[in-house]
Amino acid sequence: MASGDIHEGGCLCGAMRFHAEQDHSRTATHCFCRMCRKANGGTFVTWVAHTAESFAFTSGTPSMFHSSDLAERSFCGTCGGAMTFQAVGDPKGPPQVIWITLGSMDRPGDITPTHHIFTDDKPAWLQVDDELPRFPSQLPWLRTQDELARHTVPDTSYDDPQTGQLGNGDSFEGGCLCGALRYCATVGETPPTGHCHCGMCRKATGATLFSWIEIAAENFAFTRGEPRTFSSSHLAQRNFCETCGCQIAFRFSSDTEDGNESYWVTLGSADQPGLFAPTHQIFIRDRLPWLRLAGELREWPGQLSWAPSDDSLSSP
Question: Does 12 share its domain with 144?
Fold first, then answer.
């Protein structure tokens, strides 16, 4: 698509809609930083530059979260879908640009990614198979702004292992970006872990890729705060932070085929995502045309064969 094209998008529930004109730079960066993972629960976010003067919400009023004194993020207060990131209060920043999450756009396949940023924060198991330029931190021409930012919530550093996988009975912790929600989970024997490419998960998180681990309901508990919930189907209930928008998990009800309740916990919300080793890719039929993951991953055109059917997940 040519520079200056108008893009439309919104959240999963439809309460929020927007339109904007793509910035002349056509910058679209895959961001692997911990803050973006914790802000929406996705595996990584692709930020697409649009002109701030052209951007407008055409439906609804977003919830806002200031992730630093120089940046604010918007999300839907009903379903949690992340939509924008914009520099505020910094004369050295690019106030004329607003960054839109690719996952919230109606036609994400029309966008051509241009860079990888914050690759030093990327889990070792996540290998995007492309030849785009890679930067260990922020884009060089935006790095000054990033270094000046004072995070609203301290950006806690965890000793994230580069390889490894949790075993039966091992526990892990996680939470949202603002810290209002914290959880603890215990894995079972050979728990399913994987990546989801479906459009619903993109709209729910704003992320380009959604990765998860399945945890039995009795082995998952919130240790701080109470999540806001959104029923994206008659079987699935998504849990997110009402303050910062992070998607923590979605819960399958006992009406599933095997009669068991479980949480699919977002790896982006985990404190140490490097502990996990995804083994599956689901909804390959909805995968973005340029997104290829390296490694030996079992692929499913739709849902896992033993999980709730595709129709049950896509029905409101």
Answer: yes
| 87 shares a domain with 180 | no
| Number of separate domains in the chain | 2
| Residue located via tokens 């890719």 | 281
**271 lies in a domain?**
yes
Per-residue pLDDT tens for 123-176? 989 999 999 999 998 887 665 545 544 555 555 555 555 455 777 889 999 999
The domain containing residue 12 runs over which residues?
6-148
Distance (Å, whole) CA 254 – CA 183 = 21
Asked if residue 235 and residue 101 are part of one domain, the reply reads no
Q: What is the band of 303 on the pLDDT scale with cuts at 50, 70, 90?
A: confident
Q: Which residues contact 190 (CB under 8 A, 6 or more apart)?
A: 168
* Side-chain-facing half-sphere of 261: CA atoms under 13 Å: 11
Distance CA(134)–CA(143), nearest Å, equals 14
pLDDT tens digits along 5-38: 899 999 999 999 999 999 988 999 999 999 999 9
Tens digit of each residue's pLDDT (9 = 90 or more) over 55-110: 999 999 999 999 887 789 999 999 999 999 998 765 555 568 999 999 999 999 99
Residues 6+ apart with CB under 8 A from 70: 87, 88, 89, 90, 93, 145, 148, 149, 150
Which carries the bigger pLDDT value, residue 178 or residue 295?
178
Instruction: Please give the angle made by the CA atoms of 63, 67 and 72, to the nearest 5 degrees.
Output: 50
83 and 176 fall within a common domain:
no
Same-domain pairing of 183 and 220: yes
Q: What tokens does 187 get?
A: 């894995």
Q: Are 60 and 77 in contact (CB under 8 A)?
A: no
Same domain membership, residue 277 and residue 183: yes
Going by their DSSP bridges, the two strands 45-51 and 6-10 should be labelled as: unpaired
Whether 160 is in a domain gets the answer no
